[in-house]
Amino acid sequence: MIARLALPPAALIGPTALVVGGTLLSFRLMTASRRKARSPKVPLTALAAVAVIYAGMLLLVAPALEQWKVVPDLAKWVASHASRDHRVAIYRMNRWGPAFRFYVDRHTTNVETPEEAARFFDDQGPFYCVLAEPEYKELVARGAPLETAYNREGMWATSGRSLWRRHGDHTRFLIVTRISRAPQP
Q: 178 by DSSP, 3-state: which?
């Protein structure tokens, strides 16, 4: 747990509670069988261990998972910076589309191909588009006039892999807009 996961040392309380609770419960059951006594109807030791593990999950593990989730942060940025005139799109992020739409609370265009992206970018009016950095580089190489308005590192993963110490799975996610051109003299 310490070697592979980037959790605080306090997270060791959960496994420790499980081992201690299991040991105490086993001891009580063994001694009860020797004395021909009945086992406890409610295994309070086991319940206490489970409660400690649950609290540890809520207080230590869940926040560690949440720090690498980028969709709420990106959507809140768009929601706070986009005017009613801005068009909003996500590019090749269809798996995150429903969550992004929920957090941004406005119509969002789902763009999947470079051709669709070019049409979206060429339409009149301001826009924001959310995409991963590799896709941004691909679109810029194709001539898309984009600049980064905001970026955040995070993970595509929605599982416990985000807790691993090895952060090779991180991706930079961008919010892009049309390059602002200075007036020609």
A: strand
Task: Report the C-alpha gap between 90 and 54 in whole angstroms.
Answer: 36
Question: What pairs with residue 148 in β-bridges?
Answer: 176
| Digit-coded pLDDT (tens) for 30-46 | 777 677 666 667 777 77
Q: Could you tell me the two tokens for 123?
A: 């339409």
* Domain spans of the chain, in order of start: 9-66, 71-178
What gap in Å lies between CA 124 and CA 106, rounded to an integer? 19
Residue pair 89/127 in contact (Cβ under 8 Å)? The answer is yes
Position 127 confidence tier, pLDDT thresholds 50, 70, 90 = very high
Q: Which residues pair with 171 in a beta bridge?
A: 154
Tokens of 46: 């086991």
Cα–Cα distance for residue pair 1/64, rounded to 1 Å: 14
Dist CA 87 CA 51 (whole Å): 47
* Locus of tokens 């826009």: 127
Q: Answer whether 73's CB lies under 8 Å from 130's CB.
A: no
